[in-house]
Amino acid sequence: MTYTTEMTHASNFLAQQGDTWRAINPEFVVRMRLQNRFKTGLDIAQYTADIMRRDMQGYDDDASQYTQSLGCWHGFIGQQKMISVKKHFGTTKGRYLYLSGWMVAAMRSEFGPLPDQSMHEKTSVPALIEELYTFLKQADARELNHLFKELDGARQEGDHVKERAVQKRIDEFETHVVPIIADIDAGFGNEEATYLLAKKMIEAGACCIQIENQVSDAKQCGHQDGKVTVPHEDFLAKINAVRYAFMELGIENGIIVARTDSLGAGLTQKIPVSQFAGDLADQYNAFIDGEEVTDVASLATGDMVIRQGDKLIKPTRLPNGLVKFKVNTGEDRVVLDCITSLQNGADLLWIETEKPHVEQIAGMVNRIREVVPNAKLVYNNSPSFNWTLNFRQQVFDAWQEQGRDLSSYHRENLMSQQYDDSELAQVADEKIRCFQQDASKQAGIFHHLITLPTYHTAALSTDNLAKDYFGTQGMLAYVEGVQRQEIRQSLASVKHQDMSGSNIGDDHKEYFSGNQALKASGHNNTMNQFS
């Protein structure tokens, strides 16, 4: 629908209502509708699911067409990201937002800052999704508001060429609303709890839900120790719960990301019941560590025994009852987890690793693709990795294998600033720069995200401002480091009243009250200092 056809429709409808609706201007109706094209969260979920499915197919056709996102903890941060993306690249294509459970726990809980252990209120997750989309829709309204002002100006000037050009930009307007990959942790309870929360997330606009195979009440951050995984049957029940939630709400192409933490998890809470040799439970139990039992009399009170292949073993248990997996089985468990998830309803995989290493990821993905050829990943480019040290060590190891002279480098001290200008550091930085495109080409990564970048950017920028403002620079610290940079880089936020919706509100007042409207954007508004 174009601006003109929408005008015709609104005018015809209002004409049918008689004289009592004479105060309603059809053009104002059209503008308000265009500024709010998504009426419900389900409208957003369907729109973004369609986008993400097209992007997944595009990646299958061409691995260079990977997608990216940045994690955010507030609607304003998400809004500013997408405004920036549109400003610099002209389109939001291939760029999403990530809702990080870590940041919800650390930044959004009513308990205050919490660790990433599913301790925060589950309602804070759908609340943040709704908040993000509220801010993205407001970004649409603001940008369209500016276009409407341009259109009115062109008409007042009698410039029909400009009028048609602006109207074309309105007709072709690209929304700031993009897919959000939303973290549901381990489901916040049993499969019914997972279903109920998934519904709330989808109703808020989520088209993609990421769920992990840890025990819900023992959940740990993927980059911490003490992770405990669940048997496949338990995890698949939660995948089913999420799929039912999507189907119930009519988002039939909703996306499920199945995350495995098995690479770093050495414990299980349950020993599943096997129905026959080689079933999923039997395959899971084959990884359990234990001591072979040759004499039942050797068992103590409370000991348990399971059959593992041709022998009986007494599983190795911790004092809290958790059962240990055999050492060096993490990668095999990851591969089984991923294949099983894809064969039972998941769309994408997430393998939580301990370092960003293309060859390591590719090694696992290639094994998965022997069974599921189109398997592809969402990958966490985590701030928990020391990227500088990791890649400098990767280059060091590669050069060592090549027999290069490394006498001027100390592997364990490569993070030192003394190496920043070295050849090794420059090669490592280039590998970091190319990591996403290399990993997408070689290791099946469809989507790259950084889980909590804006946690760190907020801390860094605040530290810099506080250091100088409360130091000798005073007001110059803000002017030089913030406001002047906003002006030079054309950030919309410099006009913070406009960014927060003041001009939109003025227009609405004029729609509703006509010439009686008391508007804020007059001559004395100090925002006029920013042309």
Low-confidence stretches: none
The backbone outline, from C-alpha atoms, is globular
Helix content: 40-55%
Biggest sheet record = 8 strands, parallel
Structural class, from secondary structure content?
alpha/beta
How many helices? The count is 19
Name the beta content range: 5-15%
Q: Give the terminus-to-terminus CA distance.
A: 33 Å
Number of E-type strands: 14
Q: Radius of gyration from the CA trace?
A: 28 Å
Order of strands side by side in the largest beta sheet?
Answer: 12-6-4-3-2-1-14-13
What is the residue-averaged pLDDT? 92
What does this structure look like?
- InterPro entries: ICL/PEPM, Isocitrate_lyase, Pyrv/PenolPyrv_kinase-like_dom, Pyrv_kinase-like_dom_sf.
- This is Isocitrate lyase.
- Helices cover 48% and strands 11% of the residues.
- The protein is of the alpha/beta class.
- The chain has helices at 3-15, 26-34, 41-61, 75-89, 101-108, 124-157, 160-171, 191-204, 232-248, 280-285, 330-342, 358-369, 387-401, 423-433, 435-442, 453-469, 475-488, 496-499, 502-513; strands at 67-72, 95-99, 180-183, 208-212, 228-229, 255-260, 267-268, 290-292, 306-308, 311-315, 323-324, 348-351, 377-380, 445-450.
- Helix 4 (75-89) links the parallel strand 1 (67-72) and strand 2 (95-99).
- The two termini are 33 Å apart.
- An eight-stranded parallel sheet has the order 12-6-4-3-2-1-14-13.
- Helix 6 (124-157) packs parallel to helix 8, helix 11 packs across helix 12 (358-369) and helix 12 packs parallel to helix 15 (435-442).
